Amino acid sequence: MGKTKKYAVSALKGLALPVVVYLIFKLIRPATFGTPEALYIIAQQAMMVTIMSLGMCCNMTIGIWDFSPGSIVTMVGLICGYYFNQYGFWAMVAAGILSGILFGLINATAYTVLRVPSVVVTVGLMLIYESYGSVYKGGKGVSITREAGILGQAPWIFLVTLVMLIILYVIYNKTKFGFNVKAVGNNELIAKTAGINPRVVKFFSFFIAGCYFGIAGLVNLSYTTALSPAKNMGTMSVTFDAMMAGFIAIYLSGAVNRVFGIVIGTFTMKLISAGLVAIGVEATWQKVFVGAFLLFFIGFTQIKAQVNEWMNRIKRAKQVKA
Amino acid sequence: MSHETVLSVKGITKLFASTRALVDVTLDFKAGEVRGLIGENGSGKSTLSNVISGQLHPDDGTMELHGKPYKPANNVDAKNHKICMIVQEMGTIDGMTVAANIFLGKEDIFQNKAGLLDTKRMNSEAARILKEIGVDYIKPEALVNKMPFEDRKIVEMARAMYLEPEILIVDETTTALSQKGRDILYDIMAKMKEQNKTVIFISHDLDEVMSKCDSISVMRDGSYVDTLQVKDCTPSQIRQLMVGREIGDEYYRADYNHEYSDEVVLECENINAGILKDISLQLHKGEILGLAGLTDCGIHELGKVLFGLITPATGSVHVHRDGHTAEIKKPITAIHNKVGYVSKNRDQEALMLLSSIQDNISLPSLDMLKKGFIIFPKSEKELALKGADQMQIKMRGIDQTVMYLSGGNKQKVVLAKWIGNGSEILILDCPTRGIDVGVKAAIYRLMEKLKAEGKSILMISEELPEVIGMSDRILVLKDGEIQKEFMRGPEVTESVIIEYMI
Ligand SMILES: Nc1ncnc2c1ncn2[C@@H]1O[C@H](COP(=O)(O)OP(=O)(O)OP(=O)(O)O)[C@@H](O)[C@H]1O
Ligand SMILES: [Mg+2]
Where does residue A267 rank: exposed (0-12), middle (13-18), buried (19+ CB within 10 A)? Predict the structure, then answer.
């Protein structure tokens, strides 16, 4: 098979999932669902989650569970809003980037110093970030002007995501760090004997994640232009969206690179939400559907292998009989 | 060719809690020689290798490399001193390509000025090294996940050779390799010798050691015994040094009769699965049935099919016990019918590495031990102790973690587990892999005893001498088909069997 042909085949495999999801909803609601304008809006909505999910990519490869992304995005948004109202646009951008770095450092340090399972650390941090958000500068929430939200509107929102995507693609596939992430994720012990320091790798993985969440927070505020503090783990659903995109990417990783898989994943997730709205499913039930989809998806990866084996056996039995 | 001393080990002692793994070991390694390192299971061979390759720090003693003090901080430091090791256990990482595995931890070599890795160059370098060691069928871009154990070992060899080591340590690798893989390794060793470098070669196969090494160092109970030149010593001399007492040349069965009952206990019919083509066989009560063939001829798969681990495309497996018959479709049915299975792939398929010896041994017997709902710790302990004792497992105590046992002792735990369970049918895939001569003899005696008790054994092995030496009947497989059946007898020799294998 030629190289171009190979790329084409893998692209087709990767795009099959969103296309199938699209067609299903299109068949049910041909008039309202998935018009070009609607797709354009869905694409914009998918960008913020894409940036989050890109940030989670290294952590997921290593096997670290991070439940704090949503709360960081909210917290960064609140900080950005405050700085915009005090000092203007560029202060807001700087605040977004710097606070992302800061949260990255806090997460990374907490995880490496405490040596507690990542689930415990990040759930703890999420509760802290959420609570701090609700008292931050009076806890009233923030809003910015539409003009200031330029990074959350096309074409800027796409450009920002594209840049973040390219950076992660390079980090994940073309650097020593990226190789080490995969080594530690698959077999920490062997990685260690090869001279890789897993703790350092994990630290940087958390740190990179934080930086991405900072940008995601900035883009999120820019897109919504208004934001109020979250509480009672209210930030979990967006964290889950990003995580699910990551799972879809893992599933697709045989065919497409993890980094591109994430984009396909977030887009698919948003298509599903939009589709459920289009066929008139209530908000609560939407969550049920999305949760079921996740379970089905993870399960499917397992089932697929079994079905394959089963098919092979039947084929073989037929050959023997012939 | 000069034979100056390259590495000297002086008074090395290493303790693990109360286990004395190495006691005051002093010996020299010379340039341009292949040195065999032999000794019983748990005699300290791997521990010494780990000290030399920087993975363990000795409690006492020093080392000198080229006359200068050598004190490796870790194995990366040792590699920088051009000392590499191919380990007994699995050393490649899933989810990464062959090239990434070869250059694991050494990715910097391919970093350009911008800090990015040149993966193209990485792949071509990997291809070059693989070619250099004589392998061209392994592709640098391939993921190692789906590769067989043997090819993964070859990737490890490539990793070691890339560093152009001055000293290469090969720890008990050959038992995991087929002839093809062994030849690649032997070539590497010969080449190193030619370049006036040093190879330290650990193996339990005395014939192999005698034919590939120039000299042999013997270890016993953590102490260094002696170094002999191969050209002026005999196998029985070495064996005696190893165990400290005389072991005869003959440890296989002495008889040539092949008596067993007509009663069939395990049988399969028309099995087609993977490479296996239309296999039917019957195992009888009190029979030792040998399955011989090359690694990839299907013997190992057949063992898994018989235990219910692989579902065949066609055909069925039945076990007959106390007048009733059951079809084995899953391992649980096999276990309930007192069938035991020792896998070739020890660390991945046969052991819970992080659990204790006791937990491992008693696992398949828990049903048997329970009184009502409760399993009394005492009876569990008794069972485990009995098994450990029977197999002469060298350990600190029954609660020691299996991971820290020496390779051969791990194998004994696996055997103890199925024997303790009172299995009446044992499927043994390479049962003596990595086991020293003394215990090998003990296992063969045990097999004879089990046979005398009316138990049945299916022995899958790539080592022809033991198949010939122990089996009542031998089935030879080639490319997934049964080629030939032999009954036990003096006329059955290696050369006769090999004809049907290749
Ligand atoms: N990390 C460890 N912790 C505790 N005990 C250990 C550890 N490593 C090795 N030992 C013990 O030290 C002794 C020597 O083990 P070693 O692995 O060196 O034996 P070996 O000669 O390589 O045997 P084999 O031929 O079975 O591989 C054994 O009794 C083993 O149980
Ligand atoms: Mg060993």
Answer: buried
